[in-house]
Write a structure and sequence with these properties.
By secondary structure, the chain is an alpha/beta fold. The protein folds into 2 domains: 196 residues, Isopropylmalate Dehydrogenase (3-Layer(aba) Sandwich), CATH 3.40.718; 136 residues, Isopropylmalate Dehydrogenase, CATH 3.40.718.10. It is 42% helix and 19% strand. It has 13 helices and 12 strands. The strands form 2 sheets. It has a 10-stranded mixed β-sheet with strand order 2-1-3-12-11-4-5-10-8-9, sandwiched between helices. Strands 6-7 form a two-stranded antiparallel ribbon. Helix 1 packs parallel to helix 13, helix 7 crosses helix 8 and helix 9 runs parallel beside helix 10. The radius of gyration is 20 Å and the shape is globular. The chain starts with a strand and ends with a helix. Bound molecules: 3-isopropylmalic acid and manganese (II) ion.
């Protein structure tokens, strides 16, 4: 199989972790005789510096003509305390999501038995295995009108969802649940928000198409508590853009390091894969970021975009084996932590 992969390293530790993930993909390509062609493109703060735009036109063209996209991270503290700056690195990612219609964000949450860095009790995190399906191109993030009024002294966003938007992401969640433990939890705030009431009404009706799947409903505030109290109860969490953003960072605590977790942003034509961690600017260029989130994102790409299930499993097994042998970067092991590239090399040799 021959596939073209657009690689968007982005900012901070992004270039280091995507470099390791492509290394893994190359090894795998040789082993299973697939040809992966990588095309690099700019996004985020590094793109702003070179072109003035967080998402240059060329990047969109490269992404559109690729078979899948691998992204590192975007964000630079330089922009964080300047709320008035006109261009922001995050705009690059948000525009890409919107332009490529990446409407469903899949964030698997799991724990490795050997990793004990979670501040949560061992008996709470062990065997946790659920997936957050977050709507990614609607709601508060993109709703119009938005902006300022009253001479800039009042600010507003619009939280807006259509049934169509709710249904297409629900389809992803329910089909995933069918292949897993057959439970969907719709997370909303239907006791307060009109958009949440539409989500609930729509999902209740849609759930009838999946008689084998149990559908539960939970308020987002309660979910925030249950995710760290009894996370084992979840299989697939389906939720809107802003709730999914917040809950997925919270849930990453279960894994023991946000550096371990991958994600997929699915579109109708093309999908994007990225670790859920941010650009971790303090660790940039020091070869100490955890590459596993990026490497597992590459595995998700093989499975979800290319249908290469046994290849995806090969990567996942190599990662699990490397961890079980006690190897890891400083975020997951205390004794003799490896560097980013050393850890990736261990995984490559396991492959
Ligand atoms: C994420 C990130 C983004 C988001 C930022 C970087 C725009 O936090 O992917 O979760 O808020 O969606
Ligand atoms: Mn986020």
């Amino acid at each position: 199989m021959k596939k073209t992969i657009a690689v968007l390293p982005g900012d901070g530790v992004g270039p280091e972790v995507t470099n390791e993930a492509t290394k893994v993909l190359k090894t795998l390509g040789n082993k299973f005789t697939h040809q992966f062609v990588f095309k690099n493109a700019m996004i985020g703060a590094s793109a702003i510096e070179k072109t003035g735009s967080a998402l240059p036109k060329e990047t969109i063209t490269i992404c559109q003509s690729a078979d899948a996209i691998l992204l590192g991270a975007v964000g630079d503290p330089k922009y964080d305390n300047h709320p008035k700056s006109k261009v922001r690195p995050e705009q690059g990612l948000l525009n890409l999501r919107q332009q490529l219609n990446l409407f469903a964000n899949i964030r698997p949450i799991f724990s490795f038995p050997q990793i004990e860095t979670s501040p949560l009790k061992k008996e709470v995190v062990q065997n946790v295995d659920f997936v957050i399906v977050r709507e990614l191109t609607g709601g508060l993030y993109f709703g119009k009108p938005r902006g300022r009024k009253n001479n800039g002294k009042t600010a507003f966003e619009t939280n807006i969802y259509s049934q169509k938007e709710i249904l297409r992401v629900s389809k992803i969640a329910f089909e995933l649940a069918e292949k897993r433990h057959k439970k969907v939890t719709l997370v909303d705030k239907a006791n307060v928000l009109e958009t949440s009431r539409l989500w609930r009404e729509t999902v209740m009706e849609y759930a009838k198409n999946f008689p084998a799947v149990v559908c539960e409903y939970m308020y987002v505030d309660n979910t925030a508590m249950q995710i760290i109290k009894r996370p084992i109860m979840f299989d697939v969490i389906l939720t809107d853009n802003i709730f999914g953003d917040i809950l997925s960072d919270e849930a990453s605590v279960i894994a023991g390091s946000i550096g371990l977790l991958p994600s997929a942003s699915l579109g109708e034509k093309i999908s994007l894969y990225e670790p859920i961690h941010g650009s971790f600017p303090k660790a940039a260029n020091s070869n100490r970021a955890n590459p596993i989130g990026a490497i597992l994102s590459a595995a998700l790409m093989l499975r979800m975009s290319f249908g290469l299930e046994k290849e995806a499993i090969a990567i996942e097994k190599a990662v699990a084996k490397t961890i079980s042998q006690g190897f890891g970067t400083a975020d997951i092991v205390q004794k003799n932590p490896l560097t980013t590239s050393e850890l990736a090399n261990k995984i490559v040799s396991c492959l």
